[in-house]
Amino acid sequence: MEYHKVIVTLQLFTLFVFPTEGNIPVLPVKWRKTATDKIVPSGATVRFACRLERELQNWPRWRHINHQGQERLVSAGIYLDRESCSNCEISGNHLNGEYDLIIRNVDANVDAGQWMCEAIGGEPKSTYSATLTIVDETMTCSADNIGPENTVVSGDNITLTCYSNTEVLPGDVKWTVNGRNSNVSGQAPLIFNTQITKSAIGDVFDCRYNDDADLNTQTCKYNMSFNVQYPPEAIFISSTNDGIITENDKFEATCRSESNPEPSYEWFDSRGNSVSPGPILSIEQTKRQRAGTYRCEATNELYDGRQGRAVSTTELIIQYPPEIRAMNTVNIAQGESLRLECNVDANPEARVQWILPNATENDGNMLVFTQLGRGQAGSYTCTAVNMLDNGHLGRDSKTVLVNVKYPPIQVSTTQYTANIGDSVTLKIDVESYPTRVEFSKWSKNGSEFPSTNVTSTSCSLHIDAVTEKDFGIYEVYGTNKFRGPQQLTVELREKEKLSAPALSFVTISFSRFYVRIEGNYISAEDIVYIIEFKESGAIASNWEDNRQSQLAASISGLRESTVYDVRAFASNEFSRSDASNITKIETCGKPLVRYDSISNEISWPGYTKKSCTHSCVEIESFIQDEWTVLEKCCDPLKLKYGLQESQRGERTFRIRFCQFVNECDHEYFMSVAEAAVGSSSSSPNLYITIGVPLVVAVVLIGLGLFAYCKCRKRGSEHAYEEYAFRDPAYWSNTLESNHYEFIGSCADITEKDVPTFDIMGVTKVDCSGSGEKENIDAVDKSKQVPNEGEESYMPMAPQHDKMPTYSNT
User: Fold this and answer.
1) Which of 173, 359, 649, 709 has the fewest CB atoms found within 10 Å of its own CB?
2) Dihedrals φ, ψ of 712, to 5°?
């Protein structure tokens, strides 16, 4: 910096002491911009350019020569002689060769004339000059079609005029807007026609000399900016919760609009009534009646009397829980049509549902009955539910009573029974609507009898001692306000003496038996049958009963191989019959199920009782921790089942007996192994050679001794222990038709063991061991009548393949 200061001092000294070019070394430099002529009003600010391509060693200098030819040196480089020009300054980046001269608040007497910038070494010449002309008086600018204080309405066209008091202006003028050229220029007076909009608010219009291109100097005497007025524009409305309000909550809405001058606001409801002046609509407690469309109006008045107006609307939605209008009681005749409508007022819309007297539900607000029955009378409840915007659940319900008018209908029994000499009261109970009924006298075969007791819904006739002529049908007529006389009847009959029923059919299983009951009664539908049973030989107080109205019963929970006494009664509300003959029934014994792992067969014995028969044997095996069915229906008379290759092995088996497929006893019987499979420690040949003959010999000797002893003991009595009994039709494919086969050893035979049917063919059984077969005669026990106090043996019916199964049905 010290170096530059020295150079500046030396150069300034050189410039002022040696002002000629001969004293300054010449270093050529090109000009970038030079000064131009200017015409400005007095007091304006002027800039003259002096710019070269780079900084000069010999700094440029500014000189001024006025109209009188007087010259003054104003600056040298950046040095300014303030005494010579106090309102001047040097501007620009001097390192870039910029030495512009700014003259402020120009004065025609001092600053007018020629201004020169000299740069020794400048190319193509060293000096450039410009003339500054200063006009003493500013131009006058005016506007037509405007209001007071430059007021104009947006969209109107105005005329601007620029002129001077001097007759001749020193050059062209132009109109500018905010200092920017409007493209309107020429000799004064200069007219500028333009349309003013609200966007022109704050704009400044000015008229300038056309040569004044560098400075934004205002030349108009008065400020040419305008007060632009415009009507209210689109209104913006904001409201509480976007206009969705729960009843009784506060609601506010605010409308805003832009205009000049500021607008005034007013709110109107949907009927056009003014509800609130000002921009804010406030309702402290909203009611559903105030819901609807609200209108906000914004208005203003322009300077020329025109009215500005803008309108906008908002919707007020008031939510409230359902309210069901009251419903009156309905009185309607039976058989007529009925429509029940539930009128609900709710916002938002409610879900409506009817609850009928039988508690069933029906969606919708309407119920329609084409033919109303008396059973449809009762209370019908309408419920309505909706969900409000505030999260609350709205609910309401109303009940309407429907009374169905119908004539008296008899609801009491129409039949009474009595014995001759009994005292009896005949009573008729009725239902009707209206409920009060007027009753006539009792009548029978043309004779009338007064009622002994009458109410609004019943009448009675008492007979002290019933005679033969009192039996028959009695008539009474009942009348209510809905309909005329209705015939009501009741019959008096002599009591029926119930006879003892018969147990006619029995099927026996291991722990239960099935019984069929037969009886011949006039009023069979009113009969209740009582079946009693106990273990044979137990005391009389041990009878257990099973009551039912069906003709078949299943008695379960019994013990196997046990004899039971069974008897039956018939009963109704008037009497009970004597007991049937006692029938002895013996439940089946559990069979021993064997599994022979050598022959790979599962076997079971024949039944020990002739009624213990089934049509199927179901066989199951325990495989992989569960029971698997191997055979659904194996013939039980085969007494064995051969396992297939895939079914063999060290397994556990079980069977159960079935009446037919899928109708099986609940009890299973487990298998017992007879032989080991695959013993590795003993010789198979030795076992076959010694073991088998020895076992066979022992068994044969034992059976012979047992048969001999038993037959000798019983003498000439015909006996057998085991036999299989089937309907002849079952054997038609294997044995001679109408023959029965008895299997097993000779044992105790009692007369009771002989079948009690007429058997057309009899198998002879050798019970004496003499080799002679004796006939076993059939005895028809069903035709024998037991002596007094003697138990009778019940006839057994043949067992069919598809035996009916009864279980209290």
Assistant:
1) 359
2) -65, -40
Kindly state the tokens that stand for 18: 């040696």
pTM: 0.46
Tokens matching residue 408:
């008296």
Contact between 488 and 426 (Cβ < 8 Å): no
d(CA 532, CA 547): 9
The average confidence (pLDDT) of the chain is 76
- Tens of pLDDT along 552-604? 777 878 888 888 888 888 887 777 888 888 888 888 777 778 888 788 888 87
Q: What is the pLDDT of residue 525?
A: 63
Residue 370, number of CB atoms within 10 A of its CB: 9
Q: Write a three-state SS string for 119-182.
A: CCCEECCCEEEEEEEEECCCEEEEEECCEHHHEEECCCEEEEEEECCCCCCCCCEEEEECCEEE
Q: Give residue 267's identity as a one-letter amino acid code.
A: W
Instruction: Answer whether 504's CB lies under 8 Å from 518's CB.
Output: yes
**Residue 275's closest CA among 245, 257, 255, 295?**
295
What gap in Å lies between CA 353 and CA 363, rounded to an integer? Answer: 4
How far is 364 from 356, CA to CA, in rounded Å? 13
Q: Which residues contact 801 (CB under 8 A, 6 or more apart)?
A: 615, 660, 727, 730
Cis-peptide into 434, omega within 30 deg:
yes
CA 303 to chain centre: 65
Phi (first) and psi of residue 347, to 5 degrees: -150, 115
Distance from C-alpha of 425 to C-alpha of 465, rounded to nearest angstrom: 10
Q: Are strands 264-268 and 274-277 parallel, antiparallel or unpaired?
A: antiparallel
In whole angstroms, give the CA distance from residue 750 to residue 716.
Answer: 12
- Taking Cα atoms as reference points, which of 362, 358, 404 lies closest to residue 383? 362
State the residue for tokens 């020193």: 170
3-class DSSP assignment, residue 108: helix
What is the sign of the dihedral through the CA atoms of 348, 349, 351 and 354? Answer: positive
Nearest-angstrom CA–CA distance, 346 and 339 = 22
Report yes or no: 204 and 177 within 8 Å, Cβ to Cβ. Answer: yes
Which amino acid is residue 354, in one-letter code? W
Closest residue by Cα to residue 389 from 229, 507, 572, 247? 247
302 pLDDT above the threshold of 80 = yes
Partners of 540 in beta bridges? none
**Per-residue confidence at 29, pLDDT binned at 50, 70, 90?**
confident
The C-alpha atoms of residue 558 and residue 163 are separated, in whole angstroms, by 137
Looking at per-residue confidence, does 595 or 771 come out higher? 595
- Which has more confidence, 719 or 200? 200
Mean pLDDT, residues 667-679 taken together: 57
CA 272/CA 251 separation, integer angstroms: 19
Question: Whole-angstrom Cα distance, residue 402 to residue 376?
Answer: 8
Instruction: Write the DSSP assignment of 701-728 as a string of letters.
Output: HHHHHHHHHHHHHHTT----S------G
How many CB atoms sit inside 10 A of residue 786's CB? 12
Tell me which of 582 and 728 has the higher pLDDT: 582
* Cα 720 from Cα 747, distance rounded (Å): 5
User: What is Dmax (Cα atoms) for the chain?
Assistant: 190
For residue 679, what are its two tokens? 């013993």
- For residue 96, the SS3 value is helix
Strands 61-65 and 113-118: antiparallel
Give me 108's structure tokens: 């025609």
Type of residue numbered 3 = Y
Q: Given 3-state DSSP classes, what are the helix, strand and coil percentages for the chain, each rounded to the nearest 5?
A: 10, 40, 45
Token digits for 252?
């506010």
Structural element, H or E, at residue 478: strand 472-479
Beta bridge partners of 774: 765
Neighbours of 558 (CB within 10 A): 18
